[in-house]
Design a protein that fits this description.
The protein is α/β, with parallel strands linked by helices and 181 residues long. Helices cover 33% and strands 18% of the residues.
Length: 181
C-alpha cells in the first residue's frame, strides 16, 4: 500500500495504456473546497479510481485539515498550495478539479481529460454556468461532490472533444494595427 505524505505530450484525451501507473490530479485551485477533497479521497472513491486503473493520485488540498489515507493499491501524494500546478497537470492522465475558469482553461489547453466538480454551496455560482457550458460542448464532464462517483463511473473520457486552441494572431494583428495607425 502507498503511504500518504505531506509535501509543501500526448494527443488530446489519451488515457495511458499502462493502467498500473495511471495518474489522477485532484485540485481545488486557490480556493477552499473541502467537500471535493473529502469525496475524491474517500475510500469508496479511491476504489472507483482503482476499478478504472488509476493507482496514483496527487491532491492539491488547499487548507483541507484532515489526513488523507490511501486504500490498498493506491498511492497518494498531497500538498496544500504551489506557485504552479503545470507539472502536476502535465503528468496526469485525468484531472478532477473545482470548476473555476482558470483551472479549467489550464487543463483544457493541455489537452487533458477533465472532470469539473461544482461547489454547489457557493452563492451566485459562476462555476455551475462554466461547467455546464463546457460539458454541453463536450469538453468536460461535470459533477457536484454528491454526484462525483456516479459521473466518474459513467464517464467516457475518450469521447471528450479537444478544446479549441487560441488563435494568437488575432491579438498580434490588433496590436500591429494600433501601432501602425
Amino acid at each position: 500500500a502507498g503511504l500518504a505524505t505531506q509535501s509543501s505530450g500526448f494527443q488530446h484525451y489519451y488515457i495511458t495504456n499502462n493502467l498500473s501507473m495511471a495518474k489522477v490530479f485532484i485540485t481545488v485551485g486557490t480556493t477552499t473546497f473541502d467537500k471535493l477533497i473529502s469525496t475524491a479521497t474517500s475510500p469508496s472513491f479511491q476504489h472507483e479510481l482503482l476499478s478504472r486503473g488509476y493507482t496514483h493520485v496527487t491532491v492539491q488540498t488547499g487548507r483541507y485539515p484532515d489526513l488523507i489515507s490511501p486504500v490498498t493499491g493506491m498511492t497518494i501524494r498531497h500538498f496544500d498550495y504551489s506557485p504552479s500546478i503545470q507539472s502536476e497537470i502535465d503528468s496526469a492522465d485525468l484531472v478532477i478539479a473545482h470548476a473555476g475558469g482558470g483551472t479549467a482553461l489550464e487543463v483544457l489547453r493541455k489537452g487533458k481529460p477533465l472532470l469539473c466538480v461544482i461547489n454547489d454551496e457557493l452563492m451566485d455560482n459562476h462555476q455551475t454556468e462554466l461547467a455546464e457550458e463546457l460539458s454541453r460542448a463536450g469538453h468536460v464532464f461535470s459533477a457536484t461532490p454528491g454526484t462525483l462517483a456516479e459521473v466518474f463511473r459513467e464517464a467516457e473520457f475518450e469521447r471528450l472533444k479537444p478544446f479549441p486552441s487560441v488563435d494568437q494572431s488575432v491579438f498580434r494583428d490588433f496590436i500591429t494595427g494600433v501601432a501602425c495607425s
